Amino acid sequence: MLGADWARFNSMQTLVSRYPRPELSLYVRAYAQRVVNADDPALVECVPAQLEQVLNFELGILPGVRHRECDISGAAAWIGGAQTAFPGYMYLSPGVESFAIFFQPAGWSLLFKVPIREITNCIADANSVMGSCTRSLWNRLGGLSAFEQRVSIVEEFLLQRAASAMAQDRITAAANLLFHRHGCVHIATLADSHSLGLRQFERRFEREIGASPKAFARIARFQAALDAKLASPKRTWLDIAHTFGYYDQMHMIHDFEKLGRTTPTALLTEMGDVRPPALVSGVLSR
Predict the structure, then answer these.
(1) Which CATH number is associated with domain 5-162?
(2) How large is the average pLDDT for residues 79-98?
């Protein structure tokens, strides 16, 4: 049900998320808004490896962001690319209010004409990357309080960008296919479908995306397994491992320890609301 809202309330914070309008679905996966209420305790959330490009606007007290490569201390708006390894943590204090746009793996790059590889495994102050439009959008969002109003402002802005967006090339299309099929595509088959030799395809993919196709597919499968559990908590990890093509449950656990720094069950707890419901609601099977 396109456009539906999901709201989650707990003792720590309020989270609301939703899908984009159909015209933007090529670029955007979801919007989310988090509010840490004044009487709530501070908390820490880990951020596992993930493939979305994320544009985040901080509209209250600035959270702490610890990234293994980058420092964006004091940034009121920041953009992060795909993270192919465990990137770090977010420190959320009472008064934090964030609005995030979760883009498709190439969505932000197509809209803002920035090569994907330039923000893979990075986060950056959005003002320095996107220019004055970021400050203008941040001011408009800060002048509103309702989630739906903020979504409307953002979509108006993104539709204007979409009118002159870059077209997908073959490698971008291949990355999107790997992502949406949860990594369950043979790399050799993908190379052949684009009339490229395997080694040539692997070199081009890594040069343009900033990660090898094998690593990209591994993270796509890891993300799908994680999201499937979030979407349907009663599913067993064994069922999820079989669904997403792991050899066995230990193979899946190994990926979680590599990409999330802990076991599958522990990661769910340590993540908090890092994966909002609108991202995970449709990931029920391969």
Answers:
(1) 2.60.120.10
(2) 93
